[in-house]
Amino acid sequence: MNKYIMLSNEVKNGMEKGLPIIALESTIISHGMPYPQNVAMAREVEQIIRDNGAVPATIAIIDGKIRVGLSDDELEMFGISKSIAKVSRRDLANVVSSKTLGATTVATTMIAAKLAGIKFFVTGGLGGVHRGWETHLDISADLEELANTDVTVICAGAKSILDLPATLEYLETKGVPVIGYKTKNLPAFFTRDSGLPLALSSDDISHIANMIKTKWELKLQGGVVVANPIPEADALAPEYIDSIIENAVKEAEEQNIIGKDITPFLLGKIVELTGGKSLEANIKLVKHNAKVGAQLAVEFFKN
């Protein structure tokens, strides 16, 4: 085990018993949702993973260590603190060496998961190619990490605030399999269908688990995206949420909000403009991903 990795007792015991471990990011708690919904979501997601036969491992940086598995008090701390750094690949060494608090993004959660020997990671939605990339090249480090790091990410597609066709094209260029679970099109986070067809899809968890296993047995470097649409009952109408996203993006441009600040700003603005409906949808899709991710990991480790 890498010297910077510290496992919680629950994760350590799970590994000793041969149980599948599911990585969870901490940025969704500290920067993705308001308090107290963020902490309640984190606790519920962890319990869903346990209920489906796996072990949750929420990842964060505390006192110079990458903590794999947090206590209930630590989840609360990450939910309420306003001074936690949002840590992507470029920031990781600095935050660890300076022993400050850091919340892991998709990219850094994947890095930590690989260091800890964890193969599956559940999140809400991927980062990707931002709208307006033609004039200011803004591409999430999540995509490059998926190209290089052997972790499967279960998500509701990429965040719908992004340029989804460009994001999907980038993943294709990097050779990252995007497998639709019970969908032939890329999900669009708040909505079930972006209209963008996927090359790979399956309704069978065991088939997806076997595809992932075969990929890594063939020594094909990089991650896998399992795109799991938000449940139909919880999805927002495309025409409703798309107009709100357009307004939020326009406001971000007017305020010149760029870089790692753009996603928290847009998600917060969308929560405001939807009167909280987008937050409810976000929580529901993460919980759904947790269930599917745990089932997939259990299936993967059967043989």
Task: Give a description of the structure.
This protein has 303 residues and is of the alpha/beta class. The chain has twelve helices and eleven strands. The chain has helices at 9-16, 27-30, 37-51, 72-80, 89-98, 106-116, 141-148, 164-173, 205-217, 238-254, 262-273, 277-300; strands spanning 5-7, 21-24, 55-62, 65-68, 85-87, 102-104, 120-122, 152-155, 178-181, 200-202, 224-227. Strands 1, 2, 3, 4, 5, 6, 7, 8, 9, 10 and 11 form an eleven-stranded mixed beta sheet that branches. A hairpin with a 2-residue loop joins β3 and β4. It is globular and about 50 Å long. The two termini are 24 Å apart.
Topology at a glance:
Blueprint: E1 5-7, H1 9-16, E2 21-24, H2 27-30, H3 37-51, E3 55-62, E4 65-68, H4 72-80, E5 85-87, H5 89-98, E6 102-104, H6 106-116, E7 120-122, H7 141-148, E8 152-155, H8 164-173, E9 178-181, E10 200-202, H9 205-217, E11 224-227, H10 238-254, H11 262-273, H12 277-300
Helix pairs in contact: 3-4, 3-12, 6-7, 9-12, 10-11
Give the N-to-C terminal Cα separation. 24 Å
Low-confidence stretches: none
SSE-based structural type: alpha/beta
Total helical elements: 12
CATH architecture: 3-Layer(aba) Sandwich
Order of helices and strands: EHEHHEEHEHEHEHEHEEHEHHH
Count of spatially separate domains: 1
Q: Which percent range describes the beta-strand content?
A: 5-15%
Estimate the helix proportion, in percent.
40-55%
| Basic shape | globular
- The Cα radius of gyration reads 18 Å
The name of the CATH superfamily reads Indigoidine synthase domain
Q: Which CATH first-tier class would you pick?
A: Alpha Beta
User: What is the oligomer described by this structure?
Assistant: single chain
Task: Report the biggest beta sheet as strand number plus sense, adding barrel if it closes.
Answer: 11 strands, mixed
Query: What would the CATH topology be?
Result: Indigoidine synthase fold
Write down the overall mean pLDDT. 94
Based on DSSP secondary structure assignment, what is the total number of beta strands? 11
